[in-house]
Amino acid sequence: MDYKRYNTFEALANYKEDWNHLVEQSAHNVPFLTYEYLQAWWQTLGGGEWPDTSELVLIAAFEQGQLVGIAPLFHAKNVLGQPALMFVGAIEVSDFLDFIARPDDLSEFLTGLLDFLSANPGIPAWEHLDLYNILEDSPTLSVLEAEAENRGWSHKKVHLQPAPYIPLPGDYDAYLAMIDKKQRHEIRRKLRNVEQSLADPDLYFTVDAESLDADVQTFIEMMAQDPNKRDFLTEPMRQHLHNTARIAFDKGWLHLAFFTLDGNKAAANLSFKYNDRLWLYNSGWDWEYRDYSPGWVLLANLIKWSTENGIREFDFMRGDEPYKYKFGGIDRHIYRMVLTP
Question: What is the third-level CATH fold of 165-315?
Answer without folding.
Answer: Aminopeptidase (3.40.630)
